[in-house]
Amino acid sequence: MLISDEERILCRHITDLINQAERQYVNKFTSFLTLREQDVLRREIGGSLTFYGGFEGSERKVLGVLVDKYSDNLNKMFPIKLISLSYKAFNEKDKLTHR
How many CA atoms lie within 13 A of 24 on its CB side? Predict the structure, then answer.
């Protein structure tokens, strides 16, 4: 797999993140990563990377560099919170759409 310069930078950033986590003994997290970014990291960095997107089947996920991988529930360690919103339109013009 050929990777771009941007993806090489991402790999170096993740390597630095892993080193920081190990040196400081503290969990580190990325922002949400695309499927391509996750795949590149799995191939280039390898190891047992831990990704979590907030729910089963999510495409975009956060990479967690976890110093204590023996927790009962790894997913609770990630800084992701699900929220619920409700909105009541007063007329047809004010309805929310995907946009």
Answer: 11
Residues contacting residue 65 through CB under 8 Å, at least 6 positions apart: 14, 17, 18, 21, 27, 28, 29, 50
Rg (alpha carbons) of the chain, rounded to whole number: 18
Q: What are the beta bridge partners of residue 28?
A: 65
Portion of the chain with pLDDT greater than 90, in percent: 58
**Cα(25)–Cα(89) distance, rounded to whole angstroms?**
49
pLDDT at 99: 66
The rounded distance, in Å, linking the Cα atoms of 24 and 83 is 31
Q: Which of 54, 53, 50, 52 is nearest to 82 (CA)?
A: 54
The pLDDT value recorded for residue 81 is 82
Residues in the chain: 99
pLDDT: is 29 or 55 the higher one? 29
Backbone angles phi, psi at 18, to 5 degrees: -65, -45
